[in-house]
What does this fold into?
Amino acid sequence: MDIDRDFLKKRRACLVGIGETEQGKVPGKSSLQFHSEAAKLAIEDAGIRKEDINGVITAFSFVDQTFMHCTTFAEYFGIAPQFYYTSMAIGGSTAAWMLAQAAMAIHAGLADVILCVRGDNTLTGLTSEGMIALIKEMSHIELEYPYGLLTPGGYALFAQRHMYEFGTRSEQLAAIAVAMRKHAALMPNAFKKEPITIEDVLNSPMIASPLHLLDCCLVTDGGGAFIVASEEKARNMKHKPVYIKGVAQESTHQYISQAPNLRELLMTYRKAADKAFAMAGIQRKDIDVAMIYDCFTITVLMSLEGLGFCEIGEGGPFVEGGRIELGGELPVNTHGGLLSQAHLGGMFHVNEAVRQLRGEAGPRQVPGASHAVVTGNGGLFSSQSIVILGNEP
Amino acid sequence: MSEKSGEKSKVPVPQKRPETEKFWEGCKEGKLLLQKCNDCGEYIFYPRALCPRCMSQSLSWVESSGRGEVYTFSIHHRGPTPGFKPPYVVALIDLEEGVRMMSNVVGCDPNEVKIGMKVKVTFEQLNEDIYLPKFVPA
It folds into this structure.
């Protein structure tokens, strides 16, 4: 069916507050503590009271598996929401889709100030058994996991095929990791800032061919939050609002052995992106900065093709020569992304887009940025979320 | 899966479920069984209770030729548990019948595995009941 291109115009939803705790190796804090600290920062950033929050969206914790996660958090934090979405669990696709879910709730009139929050002590709190459980969840328990598929291995299967079909090279994937590290160096709250070169990526240990250690995202502790409000409520808040202008999602499979062929997979992504851009009423060339889910370097390359910033198969040449770096044609993940800043499932892709569109990104600011795209990718290209943001209605 | 403590160091052994019991019986007899929809003719893998194309619940088990080719692969230099001995090859195999399955390519140097390489099934015994289908160069 055709999706309603105008639903976001009928009752507009805006990002009004962002919060982000210390990221990296932060021992001694629980998942709910990180949630709460990030939520408090976002409330302060929006310049509102806790009592103004009437909707809450949470996801999950890898460390503390919780039945009814959202209401557990709401109780801990001391709020009684009239709208909540508990345990949104589409992996790395979650953060971006929280925005869409919040916009839908606002459109429906179920709430008008919605807190979206995640936090986890994944680095210091996750046991080796917990890590194995996570790896298991990514694959079919009977007919994939027994073959020893790692999560990087799943993305490696895509990368190997991409190289075979399109001639993509490891140096091109490495250019993505190098760009993220350069950006992280300018981000105060980034875990990995020491510069790396393409050679460093290629010389880092091979994890699952063709992906090296530095093709893989970080594992970190920390919390992140953002607040979505109706335009009416946003008017009286501290910052100029950032508008949610277009949303789309798609899924072709869960397990990688069931994924369509590479080109078909990316064409499905392209169709979803077309819907998001049509809803936003803008073109690809109008995007000033892109926050692309970067669990692995290949994820960025394929997402850029799927989004339509380049043709399918041309992601390799596209990411070379600084095009995705600050000062380039399409700066990607100016905060350093999951590869170098921190990994909280893409919450900070949203937050950095807000900073960019407010003009508050400091040394990372893309001059005059007015539109951003934020993507999420869950599972093994199993769930795609695409959101377009702008600083005008 | 083997979830008991102390099993962490071993390779995981699949546990049969209602949809897969017949599949594992086939493996034990040295046959790679696929489901085929009696209504639309679709080959189905992994095993399910209904056809994901037409929802028919009338499915037959048919024996695959066990031949196929490598769609893509990754040489794993680390494993999820110590039971795996890197380097090993995780691959997606396109069977002649048109379905794709994950497996390991064994019986050759990992560096010899290529996309498009012809392979055939073999079975590796994990316990008295479970024989895991793997592939060797054809």
Summary: Chain A touches chain B at residues 128-129, 132, 135-136, 139-150, 153, 156-161, 164, 205-211, 255-258 (CB under 8 Å). Chain A has a mean pLDDT of 96.
